[in-house]
Amino acid sequence: MANSVAGVGSINVANMVNQLMSVEGNQQTLLKQKAAVQQSQITAFQSINSGLLNLKTLSEGIIGSGTTPQSWSNLAGTSSDPSISVTAGTGAATGTYNVTVDQLASAQQTTYSTALAMTDKVAAAATLVISGAAGGPPATINVGTGTLSEVISAINAAPAAGVTATAVQVAPGQYKLLLTSKVTGSAGGFTLTGTVDDTQLTNVTPAQDAKVTVPGVGQITSTSNTFQNVFPGVTFTVSKAATTATLTVANDAQGMTSQVQKLVDALNGVLTTISSKSSYDPTNKIAGPLTGSSVATNLSDQLSDAVFPTTPGDSLSQIGIQSTRNGTYTFDAAAFTAKLNSDPATAQRLVEGLATRLQSIAASTTRIGSGSVSVAIDGGRSVLKTLNDQVADWDLRLADMKDSYTRQFAALNTTLAKMQDQQSWLANQFSTMSAG
């Protein structure tokens, strides 16, 4: 709409309102910026918390948890004969043990010698009785009309029988009934009665225990081919009889080296995260989200102090752990292995001491409700919620302001339009008077 009198005309309501709202929204913009900063701090602390929990887990892999402490002993078992496999578990100690395998364990297998068609009768009556296999009372099994097919189905459907039944084809359309105990060892021996001719039942494999002889101890039996805790914490499995072997339990240098490497890597991971999140970039003039955070600084100091043993004269350099200029640590696997071989007691003591100190720091700082990192995360979340609530409140306030400004300027536009009409009328009157 053109103005015919200077200073009087229409208003671009949308443009005017948008400019005013840009100013009014500055406070909300500041709140959003604060919320973004708060979120970055929370994310940084969460990353540190995850690293600490990993450090705690790795430390406890060496020293155990607070409720179930353990001495560091990463042992491996080997055998001089490949037919015997060996593992070393909790309670095992280094040493060598000689064993002779006298006999392997086996599950009883019994066959009905006569070959039958699947529809031929095996049972003399409607029931068969299997005794002994399940270790309980005899199992009476209803087999219907007693055909080979029905007998197999009925036995396999009866858990109390303690055996499985199979039809072994020996010629086209001709089968032999084969029963196998579900467990190995002499306790799995069983008898079957009630067939058309019980004399046809033959044991093709006996139910027997595994037996080994340990010099100076004597013969030891097992219901399976696996022997547990014959030697404390040691489990070995035999697969061939008439075998004599030497079982060895020794420190697993490779496994222990791997554990220490992972521990140092985890420590470096936390320290690097703290450093990167707390640093200031002078080129771009950008501060990390944890710049100036006392929680981050104190944690970094604690972790660095943990690398120094408390016993005078001790140093982790003895096991290959050295500090670097950037505040992290290197691990020399060869130096550690050499120390482990030459002085295993010292190597174990130094690693256990480091793991104990790191576990204590990680556990205390991540403890829910009281740990410094945990509290920082919870506190940050609380502040962030408040900021987000304030941002949401501003959404409502700004919407109300926009509506109010829009109404005001729309009304002003209406007034201006009326004034323009009056201006046009007056201009016409002046023109008429001038013409007369």
Please explain how this structure is put together:
This protein is an alpha+beta fold. It is 45% helix and 22% strand. The chain contains eight helices and 19 strands. The strands form six sheets. A five-stranded antiparallel sheet has the order 1-15-3-11-12. The longest helix is centred in the C-terminal third of the chain and has 64 residues. The protein is elongated and about 145 Å long.
Compose a concise summary of this entry.
Helix content is 45%, strand content 22%. With 436 residues, it is of the alpha+beta class. Helix 2 runs antiparallel to helix 4 and helix 4 runs antiparallel to helix 5 (294-306).
Put simply, the count of helices is 8
Secondary-structure element series: HHEEEEEEHEEEEEEEEEHEEHEEHHH
The quaternary organization reads as single chain
Shape from CA axes? elongated
**Number of DSSP strands?**
19
How are the strands ordered across the major sheet? 1-15-3-11-12
Taking pLDDT < 50 over at least 5 consecutive residues as the criterion, the unreliable ranges are 1-8
Radius of gyration: 43 Å
